[in-house]
Design brief:
Elements lengths: L1 E8 L3 H17 L3 E5 L7 E5 L11 H7 L7 E5 L4 H10 L3 E4 L7 H9 L7 H13 L7 H11 L4 H8 L3 H15 L4 H10 L5
Parallel strand pairs: 1-2, 1-3, 3-4, 4-5
Helix pairs in contact: 6-8, 7-8
Length: 203
């Protein structure tokens, strides 16, 4: 019999119980398979509960260690559907798996299969989010000049700096910026900064 070992750092009892119920149901359907919760980090899968966090800076040192375990796909981070910003940060910077606790269906077979192969598992909600982010820049047309301005703004450069760098007048840079704002559907600099942080300029 195969035993799938799990180490849990999940604080919220409802989340852990929900996950364990899914494991029990899976075991009933697959009698050659079993699972065991162990008390050390040599498990096949480490469960991390980030549902109370807004950003990566909020996680504890112990959780950071679990997040940075050697190998890929060995840590599973639990997030709620509203934590899209944190989910995108995790997808961009780490190789952990992501589970949306608000999804009705847990694809446990896929999660286990990915974990056994040291591959990343991303639940459907966050997978759609990642695809939307990757496609947003591609779905808009930016001129070469607008791309340069967009890239510069994303890296924190001012209009004056871009003007010098691109050998264009500040008025021209402002025109490009206004066109970018229209394409992104934003009305002021604050909205523009937020939109730019979510947007990877097209190459």
């Amino acid at each position: 019999m195969f035993t799938f070992t799990i180490y849990s750092r999940v604080v919220h009892p409802t989340l852990l119980n929900g996950f364990l119920c899914s494991l029990k149901a899976f075991r009933e359907q697959n009698p050659e398979w079993n699972y065991e919760i162990i008390r050390h980090d040599n498990a096949r899968l480490t469960l991390l509960d980030f549902t109370a966090y807004d950003a990566l800076t909020d996680i504890t040192a112990a959780e950071y260690e679990g997040l940075c375990r050697p190998g890929e796909g060995t840590s599973l981070v639990m997030l709620s559907a509203c934590q899209e910003k944190l989910a995108l940060q995790l997808m961009k910077s780490y190789r952990c798996s992501l589970l949306c606790v608000d999804e009705r269906l847990l694809e446990l077979r896929e999660l286990i299969k990915h974990s056994m192969k040291s591959q990343r598992y991303i639940s459907a909600h966050f997978l759609r989010l990642k695809e939307q982010k990757n496609n947003i820049a591609d779905s808009m047309f930016f001129t070469d000049a607008e791309r340069k301005v967009l890239s510069g703004l994303k890296s924190g450069k001012t209009g004056i700096e871009l003007s010098r760098e691109m050998f264009r007048s500040q008025k021209t840079i402002s025109t490009h910026k206004r066109k970018i704002m229209v394409k992104l559907g934003v009305k002021n600099d604050l909205e523009l900064r937020k939109a730019i942080q979510k947007l990877q300029p097209p190459q």
